[in-house]
Structures
1.
Amino acid sequence: MIVGIPTEVKTHEYRVAATPEGVRELAHAGHEIVVQSGAGVGSAITDDDFVAAGAKILPDADAVFDAAELIVKVKEPQPEEYERFRADHVLFTYLHLAADEKLTRFLVERGVRAIAYETVQTTDGKLPLLAPMSEIAGRMAPQEGAKYLERPSGGRGVLMGGASGVRPAIVVVLGGGMAGWNAAEIAAGMQAEVVVVDKNVERLREIDRIWRGRIQTVMSSRLAVERVVVDADLVIGAVLVPGAKAPHLVTADMVKEMRPGAVMVDISIDQGGCFETSHVTTHAEPTYVVDDVVHYAVGNMPGAVPRTSTYALTNVTLPYLLALATDGPERAITEDASLALGVNSWDGKLTNEGVADATGVPFTPLGS
């Protein structure tokens, strides 16, 4: 199969869909890999690196899309990329369609077979292709929050770890999954006072067992969220419902009650955000202020550390990519139920129920 890797065009997106190591594995399996010139520059990977691994370099995105059967990306297609897609293309990338009705309708109407990294799910409920980016975004969230807590950045002027005789920052993490766990761990390492809120009591017990009270845990409820958010210096939203829109755990009324200069980091923004006052931002303009509260809601947080992110992503996507290329998409999704759950659109039908509920596009079960 011909696998195409175009340059990402989303604002300040520096990742690339595969490393030279991934290209070498595909080439060894007998596939042809075409890479757009300069696609890896943002991740410190040169065209020569790709060529040495077995790829062919093409001059522009049009050439890559024209040549390839399987398009592998990092981020969802941007409007300027839409017309490059053909009905016979298979697309493998992060899609987050629940927050993007326009893209959803395009993929369905164009007939693109689109498989989303973030909805590939194993039998134990884990999301293996989302996990590394959630881990990275979680680890980034406290450092971004710490930066915007500084007074020159519009924050309260609070140091995460405080100082001798001075209380540290109060950090509230909403969600104890992969992103939230990592956010809490880094915030605790910065010596902040950390509270994790989750509705899964087993996850909270696990945090208590490991951290022995160093990280506080609170069972999620509307009242509990209200109480902890209003006292926080930094709130990190890390709630995920696979394939569906994130719930608004923090309402606009709660934001009005927060401390002036407090900071909110919405890791869930790719799925619509878990703060009612959130809207997506970019690395070029990452923050905005609502009711004196600084909001950070960058839709591709891991794109700021592309070298780390690209390698972490390829580590987990490569086995699935090899299966799609070697077995063909129909056989691959038939033989791997986890990969089948990643299918969001297939032959003109929307096959993810969560996306259908969020966008209003009719749902058709895969294989119907």
2.
Amino acid sequence: MEEKESVVLRLRQDAITIFRSALAAVDPEEAVRRHLRIEAGALAVEGRRYDLNGCERVLVVGAGKAVAPMAKALEDLLGDRIAAGLLVVKDGHGLPLRKIRFQEASHPVPDERGVSGTLEILKLLEGARERDLVICLISGGGSALLIAPSEGIGLADKQATTKNLLACGATIHEINTIRKHLSRAKGGQLARAAHPATVLSLILSDVVGDDLDVIGSGPTVPDRSSFQDTLEILKRYEIWNQIPDSVRQRVILGVKGALAETPKPGDPVFERCAQVLVGSCLRALTAAARTAERLGYQSLILSSKVEGEAREVAKAFSAIGKEILSSGQPVQPPACVLIGGETTVTLQGDGRGGRNQEFVLASAIALEGADRVVLLAGGTDGTDGPTDAAGAVADGLTVRRAKGMGMDPHAFLKRSDSYHFFKPLDDLIITGPTRTNVMDVYMLLVGA
């Protein structure tokens, strides 16, 4: 047993090292530096050039968990060319900046600070002129932070709707469809506010498929969704009767055509808008695979687009670990198998945890007794649900250890209480705010 524990300990240490390398690869400040440079008085980015000498003002706005370090890179690059700027960031995610102000606010359930910060951004953009360059920074978390409820909807109504959406198992694509139709800034409406200025959006993706109209609820890109989509999602998850009356009334009016839709493809407000994706989950997975190979593992990236109920995806992922043990397929051990994406959790009790912790708890049950297997799941933003953990790590001995402490893993999973399962085991991954966000990394390590 000591030999097994020694092998598992080394696998665990390697898993943490590999996960941290994934985080380093999607550092937002470095991501912006990689994509932007100054050439002969112009800002060059992805084949585009923005004449800074002919620009009247450079304004910087944005929202998300990663936008403060993105803004720092911009300040270092543009210096006094920046006339003004304002960001809305999650609590604890700000950084000292010289020219750009930031407003901290609550995430994932919005608060009044997010509202006031967003209204300030809209006011700043109202004065934007044709010769101005607006640089918009968007990252994961932007949807909850760039919050300015539509007319007739109060913040409490938006908060109640958000809580229902987070608990029902809806995907981020579905949640953001609804957010866009209850907002003054999302779904291309920030671009509308900045028109006729030139708008350059620098985007760090936290959504499956890197859909630009979903990341941060697409404040500067055309919106392909509709009020009809919003209605169908709310009814599909059976929360139509649980959301506030003001939200239902707005959706009904929108479906009837009595309210203006969000700006769609072809709208003139997007003629001078460009978007650049500066970081994604696949980049994090690629860096993790390279680190694993340096540590002696054969690496395999299966997908960066994983979705689904956390505990169900966990069963399928754990089965791959058991298959490697028994047959050496799809990769011979020592092996590192990686997937990325964002699962969902349908709350089934009054417990505490997040999708990554629930994923690992379900995996621990599935892997009970499996030798030489370690599984890690972590949010690249450093937080997992309403907890201070980024995720958790488990192995084939985790369930035995838990039972030795009088804990029934099935009972914890049943009440969605993964945090209190892993905390006494000291198996939580605590990184603190990483100030980046490219979804979640899931990792299987199988020893030789």
